[in-house]
Write a structure and sequence with these properties.
479 residues; alpha/beta; Rossmann fold; 2 domains; 4-stranded parallel beta sheet; 13 helices; 16% strand
Length: 479
């Protein structure tokens, strides 16, 4: 299992600390806030009429009542795949007077350089180059308004003797003032080593979550720069690891490095910083190609297009165009009256098996052999499998009797598992739990999370798999 126990965010001694953010960096961030007035960075983004916190609360309650995690029928077939989609009940983004964002740079194409004809990560390159881009850093304003006043973040770092020798981390970055009179001040924490997302593991998910937990109280939002290949897995995992999340966590990256003449990285990072600092959406999300998607509803759809991520069964939470429209009635309600809690124990003994017409019993039995504790079954259509294959159903039944949790999702890009077909009922009888309309990424990470919860009984775990924990599914409940 990934290391780590239950954490109460903002309290107790942190398990992992960010070793590379300098004392000066954090001090300047908070020192700026008495002088900064925040609105936005993008010209052309109009500021909506201010919505009071009471109205926001009412919207959240309405979303909860109407089922903010429900399936595609809730939005009449409109998903992130539909170019014509616009939030029907969207509101313009409400800008804060001041905000600060922590950027965790884990790796990925967005910060790579070409060496010997191939893209490779280069330490300390990203933050230094961001300082040279006026859309990401207003050096004149920083020099004019910098202040050395200490704050609790500085004090915490001093207690822990945090190293501040990383190049490019002597001061935070400040996005330029736009017509909305808004600033976002942010720190970039660069991971060492920088990872290609193909190499991301459960331990890396736990590290990212724990770093966010460590500075949860000190920032208004968080941005994770991440490679695109496994971004949806990381987003899904983080969504389950945080309970009662009260702040936005946004993953983004790019298909072309941000410093190339033609790159999608600039818009993606700008959008992520704005939304992390101002949206107040308490979810783990992916921002790509001007769409803000729920992380555990997202999947990488295209290996080369700028429109790389889709949310096939749920609409975007926000669309960033000439105005930023937030689809507040689709936000999954978070219990912000409770303390945000982090669970990092994930079970690594899980896997995904895709049905195909010539699959043999021996293959399935071998896949389900110990130490496997949970399996996501990608079945045909609306959750169907060959009910004439009694040998296959018997293997599933045997695994269930050994305590292996089996979760059924569809192979189709859109749609849901339905109990209406006899071929689907055969799987349910064999002990395979219907997974509604979950993506493969959400199903796998949810399975790892549920099995890892040692405080839940076996029956509780079965029920939790088909409950809508973080907005990851819709539809019927099987139990």
């Amino acid at each position: 299992m990934a290391t780590g126990d239950q954490y109460a965010v903002g309290k107790g001694k942190p398990r992992r600390l960010m070793r590379r953010i300098s004392l000066a960096s954090i001090g300047e961030v908070v020192g700026y806030f008495g002088l900064l007035r925040i609105r936005s960075v993008l010209d052309g983004v109009s500021c909506a009429k201010k919505i009071t916190s009471e109205v926001d609360d009412a919207i959240i309650k309405m979303a909860s009542k109407n089922g903010a995690g429900s399936v595609a029928s809730d939005f009449e077939g409109k998903t992130s795949m539909d170019p014509s989609y616009r939030p029907e009940k969207g509101t313009d983004l409400e800008y804060k007077d001041k905000s600060r964002v922590l950027v965790l740079y884990t790796g990925g194409t967005i910060g790579m350089r070409i060496h010997d004809g191939v893209y490779t990560p280069e330490p300390n390159f990203l933050v230094n180059e961001l300082r040279k881009l006026s859309i990401f850093h207003d050096q004149e304003y920083v020099v004019k308004h910098s202040t050395p006043e200490p704050n609790f973040l500085v004090n915490e770092l001093r207690k822990l003797s945090i190293s501040h020798d990383q190049e490019g981390m002597n001061s935070p970055l400040c996005m330029p003032l736009s017509k909305e009179k808004a600033y976002v001040v942010y720190c970039v924490y660069e991971y060492e080593p920088l990872l290609d997302s193909c190499n991301m593991t459960m331990d890396d998910w736990a590290r990212i979550a724990s770093d966010i937990k460590t500075y949860y109280e000190g920032f208004d939002g968080f941005v994770i720069l991440h490679g695109t290949d496994t971004m949806a897995y990381t987003a899904s995992a983080l969504s389950f690891m945080f309970e009662n999340l009260g702040k936005p966590i946004i993953l983004t990256g790019s298909q072309i490095p941000i410093f190339e003449t033609r790159s999608d990285g600039r818009d993606n990072l700008l959008g992520a910083l704005i939304m992390a600092g101002n949206s107040k959406i308490p979810e783990v999300m992916i921002l790509f190609n001007n769409k803000l998607l729920r992380g555990n509803r997202s999947t990488k759809f295209n290996s080369s297009s700028f429109d790389a991520f889709h949310s096939p069964n749920f609409p975007p939470l926000a669309v960033l165009e000439t105005e930023i429209h937030v689809h507040r009635d689709k936000i999954f309600p978070s219990n912000t009256t409770q303390e945000c809690t982090l669970y990092t124990d994930l079970c690594p003994s899980v896997g995904i098996l895709r049905l195909f017409p010539t699959i043999t019993t021996a293959m399935v039995r071998q896949f389900l052999a110990p130490p496997l504790k949970g399996m996501v079954l990608e079945s045909y259509g609306a959750g169907n499998a060959p009910d004439s294959r009694e040998d296959l159903m018997q293997v599933f039944s045997e695994a269930r009797e050994r305590g292996v949790l089996l979760l059924n999702i569809t192979q189709c890009h859109r749609g849901s598992v339905s109990p209406g077909y006899a071929t689907g009922q055969a799987l349910t009888v064999a002990g395979v739990i219907p997974g509604s309309d979950m993506t493969p990424e959400a199903a796998l990470t949810k399975l790892a999370f549920v099995i890892g919860r040692e405080d839940w009984s076996s029956e509780d775990k079965k029920k939790k798999l088909s409950q809508n924990l973080r907005g990851e599914l819709g539809g019927f409940m099987w139990y």
